[in-house]
# Entry
Amino acid sequence: MSFFDKIREGLKKTKQSAQNNVNAVLATFRTVDEDLLSELEDSLILADIGAETAMTTVDELRERSKLRNIHTKEDIKAELCDILCEKMKGDSALHLDTKPSVILVVGVNGVGKTTTIGKLGQKFVSEGKKVLFAAADTFRAAAADQLEVWAERCSADIVRHSEGADPSAVIFDAISAAKARGTDVVICDTAGRLHNKKNLMNELAKMNRVIERELPGASRETLLVIDATTGQNGVNQAESFNEACTLTGIVLTKLDGTAKGGIVINISSRLGVPVKFIGVGESADDLLEFDAKAFVEAFFE
Ligand SMILES: Nc1nc2c(ncn2[C@@H]2O[C@H](COP(=O)(O)OP(=O)(O)O)[C@@H](O)[C@H]2O)c(=O)[nH]1
Ligand SMILES: [Mg+2]
# Structure
């Protein structure tokens, strides 16, 4: 299945609703007037693009329609795609230039952190990289067991401690092992069960201190995983985590399970943190590098 087919397949539910809405609005197109703009705004909001983003999108469309001739619904679609791509611009690439480099994966419980780490491991190993997982979600033993299954599946190494251990100690050991073994990428799983923001900040700060101290100058990524099916709640989570640590990218999982794929546009335009990957299923190859243009095209196709 091609890359585009995968996005298309992953966005099937979104398209069944969003496309119908946007297309239904465009089907009645005669001219760009306030009726059309407000109907478009509503259909964008229904796809979870967010009220604010829908409003600024429509404002931009209004301005453009004054400057350019928009004659057909294809013209409008093209302008709409262009405006939404602009809102998502940002660097979607991972920057892992040092050996080892470190990816810290954060997010609330159940969003798909461990699964995403497994998928990333698979991707890096297939590129010929040596990967080590740090099982720093020590909250329950099952979390490390789950990561271990992925490690076996994709031939990555894993460092784990017993249940309840200090997550920063796991990361410390993982980095020592990575240095000794010539690992390319260390991917750290974390617990999503932190009770409050202060707790979360302290824990993340401690892990970051360990990485900083043990690997000064190393390439780092901090990826926030968000479940696309949680809608507005996902935006709130992103805002909290963005305050607690410096995020370098977002992974939006479970796009295959939602009719509201517009959340991708909402989150990346609101936070100014680029979406780097999208998850469209549970298996190892269901993680796609994010491409704003391909995404928007599939969205409005
Ligand atoms: N459909 C679908 N399910 C996913 C995706 N990513 C993760 N999951 C499922 O979501 C559930 C929770 O994932 P897990 O990685 O354990 O979440 P964690 O608590 O954040 O580590 C599991 O059943 C995963 O198989 C995705 O992109 N699509
Ligand atoms: Mg987990």
